[in-house]
Design a protein that fits this description.
Layout lengths: L1 H11 L3 H23 L2 H17 L10 H22 L12 H8 L3 H11 L5 H10 L4 H8 L3 H27 L1
Helix pairs in contact: 1-2, 2-3, 2-4, 3-4, 4-8, 7-9
Length: about 180
């Protein structure tokens, strides 16, 4: 987290390589996070680009007393929700050739087999448990950061994560039993 703040400070002082390092570090994670809202990879990629364009155009708005990761996820959530609101007003047919399968998205975001299995198990959790488990266990965000990003109370977050982990354990144990047979 301190590394992110140092990179951002360098970016504020005109070091564009620092901004590129931030983008490289967070782009795929932001795409995946946004995808969980919009359910279209092409839209998630565009909105993730918008997040970083927003940062580039409004670099002075970041308050370094918060983690950069929390700031990025908060902007990402806002962009995703704004897109969904706008889409609900505009109805159009989706062209299937632009849609990607869940498997393709998993492969792009998770490179290791164990991560893929865990991600698949997390996807089987109900909303918002799957988002919370992803943010706390994969992205390693604090409960406080998650509360800020998702606009939930600490008790809601703790309860849903506890329930989600119990359910995730059941899913993983069931899959392990299937492999052992």
């Amino acid at each position: 987290m301190e590394e992110d703040k140092k990179l951002y400070k360098k970016f504020l002082n005109g070091d564009n390589e620092s901004f590129e390092l931030i983008v490289d570090k967070y782009m795929e994670k932001i795409i995946y996070f946004i995808y969980r809202f919009v359910k279209r990879i092409d839209v998630a990629e565009d909105l993730a680009q918008d997040v970083f364009v927003y940062i580039l155009m409004n670099k002075e708005k970041y308050d370094s007393k918060y983690s950069l990761k929390t700031y990025l996820y908060t902007i990402s959530k806002s962009k995703a929700i704004n897109y969904i609101k706008k889409e609900s007003k505009i109805s159009y047919l989706q062209d299937n050739e632009y849609l990607f399968t869940e498997e393709e998205i998993e492969d792009a975001v998770f490179s290791k087999e164990k991560s893929k299995q865990l991600k698949l198990a997390i996807d089987r959790l109900p909303e918002p448990q799957n988002q919370l488990i992803y943010l706390v266990d994969i992205e390693e965000l604090s409960y406080k950061e998650i509360c800020s990003i998702l606009g939930m109370s600490l008790s809601q977050v703790k309860t849903l994560i506890h329930r989600g982990r119990k359910k995730l354990k059941q899913i993983l144990m069931k899959e392990a039993d299937c492999y052992n047979e």
